[in-house]
Amino acid sequence: MLAAVTATRYVLPLREGGSLPGLVEADDLGTYVVKWRAAGQGVPVLAAEVVCGELARALALPVPALVTVDVAPDLAVGEPDQEVQELLRHSAGTNLGMDYLPGALDFSAHSADVDPELAGRVLWFDALVGNVDRSWRNPNMLFWHGRLQLIDHGAALTFHHHWPGAAAAVARPYDAAQHALVESHPDVAAADAALGPLVTRPLLERVLELVPDAWLRGPEEEPAATTRERYVVQLLARLDARPAWLPALVRAAADGSRGRSPAPRGQNRPGWLGPPPPPGVSQR
Ligand SMILES: Nc1ncnc2c1ncn2[C@@H]1O[C@H](COP(=O)(O)OP(=O)(O)OP(=O)(O)O)[C@@H](O)[C@H]1O
Ligand SMILES: [Mg+2]
After folding, report:
1. Is 268 part of a structural domain of the chain?
2. Ligand 2: distance of its center to the CA of 223 in Å?
């Protein structure tokens, strides 16, 4: 199980997040960014946070600690915003907390600090879990104490919103063109060689055990164990289907990196210098 804490004070809503996550203090004296179980997309979003966050951690990708946060119905009685009040009242019970990283910096200012090895691993991981929410517009990565941190995996594992369509998602190509790290020369082939063998059935079973029963939504009220097994089977099938999505990912990484390379020789020549010399002719 994830560590369990109880919320003691609602601090404020984080309005930059679409799901209106809240900053909360807890009885372990920690401060957490809380994703509410009553927020728009429902509890599968919380399951995605746990499955992806803990799978990433097991693959040595940096993710802040995750906990369950018990919330009393009257936690935010002093909150003036009616929308937030409602959200919290309907979220009484078990919610998801991510360790708050005070003073964390936005990804955009530090994107150049991500090396190709790490960029490749993050891109490979996002393709595996189908994370559509790590674009340059909305990177969902922070820098904290000089180190990259991955946050917000709620938009991954989209298959769990509609299990009958899950089989069709197994071999689906991953659109990496807008990914925040596609220009960081991601070494996807090395990531695949390093991380592929680590994603095993026992690991996935351990990760699924961390998801509270109440956040599992299988078809027709099936037992939680059956729903957990669906995720394990789905992710193992996605891994096995790499021949269907990996080559395109490697190509996208190469194309993305090309987009950032310096302009071809001659392109920035001032007009008065005349046309560039033919290829192979030295200018010196
Ligand atoms: N652990 C954290 N430490 C510090 N700041 C955080 C943390 N988690 C989230 N934030 C801040 O809060 C914002 C919203 O969080 P997050 O992206 O998880 O919410 P969301 O509602 O899922 O967002 P989105 O609009 O991307 O769906 C982040 O962009 C970041 O600025
Ligand atoms: Mg976000």
Report:
1. no
2. 31
